[in-house]
Amino acid sequence: MSVTGEASGSIDGGSRAVDEVVDLVSKLIRFDTSNTGELATTKGERECAEWVAERLREVGYTTEYVESGAPGRGNVFARLQGADSGRGALLMHGHLDVVPAEASDWSVHPFSGAVRDGYVWGRGAIDMKDMCGMMLAVARQFKREGTVPPRDIVFAFLADEEAGGTWGSQWLADNRPDLFDGITEAVGEVGGFSLTVPRPDGTERRLYLVETAEKGLGWMRLRAKARAGHGSFLHEDNAVTILAEAVARLGRHTFPLVVSDSVAEFLAVVSEETGLTFDPDSPDIEGQLAKLGTISRIIGATLRDTANPTMLQAGYKANVIPQTAEAVIDCRVVPGRREAFEREVDDLIGPDVEREWITALDSYETTFDGDLVDAMNAAILAHDPQGRTVPYMLSGGTDAKAFARLGIRCFGFAPLRLPPELDFTALFHGVDERVPVDALEFGTQVLEHFLLNS
Ligand SMILES: [Zn+2]
Predict the structure, then answer these.
(1) For a Cys staple, 217 with which of 194, 392, 397, 437, CB 3.0–4.6 Å?
(2) How far is the CA of 162 from the centre of ligand 1 (A)?
């Protein structure tokens, strides 16, 4: 495994996946596919998707380019025929859009795709043009070499993940379910990266976190309506006061601890490897988790529902009491808790505040077992004998939510072996986002092994 200073040569039809992955990721980053959340200002997805389609076509794939509900929201699909097409197909998916980046904050230009100091730098380097590049590299190698995987593989490169998939995966699931016919399992982000933990005997273990669950994501609008009036009069029912009290109660509330199966299994493996103890019934479980370092930011957020007020709006003049006041709450709900969460919210906001979901995407959770999980384990062990896979729950959301609602079993597995000191979670949507060259080369080999045995 080499750490080269720069991307190798130009992309052509001849190189192996591991030889071209760095160049592919670097070139993907050079497409500015910033997703602002607004149709008018989001750009680059079409150009990037067309470039991906061309890389697939030049080695012999038939590709389908689909715009998901709005001009320029480009998605690309390609299928590789497997030995047994009667088995359910496997979907390998990645998104081509990225969150915006402020160039002046960065050490390198965020859309340079610079290869420097053993890293590929730029927006999307880990979220998730790394995985898109690895998928593309392996897909190209399989086609060039005439590889026939055990079952059909559908490669999908998608738009609009960073704004909830409204103009991407969610639209495709609603309007083009035919694209997913016969697919039983799916693999995408966020998982497969290593977390190095200390063992009691002084050695270290690399855990590879496989995403098997995601919290539900909901953006909720609260609205209080009362009597409008003059700001100088006595006025008991003020919409701003009613709303503010409800928002404060909700924002300060701690929802009950709920340890889902994925979280329990994660904590059990970490305890076994490190000797650290976690008591899920302890009121200080978050404090115990802090011993794990930065990953506790994600794990800690999967133990309870959260409801964070994010937007407030009311009034139009200092001496006019408005009739309405509104707030938006970012809600993240543990699997199985949706109804209980809504009841708890209703109790907190009281009868004078109404609520509605602006966006509500359900949670999902699957078990960490079966042939596909065995193939992940085997692929990691083949390339990192010190590795061990472990399931975990993501506190955020990905395109998997759209596919899970089609009945597809979803996992996050974009393998990267990372240096122990790298604060990986801080790089997501962060400044100086970058991915180690050798992690990409490792991940490409793991993916190849995985897809040959899945
Ligand atoms: Zn992502």
Answers:
(1) 397
(2) 7
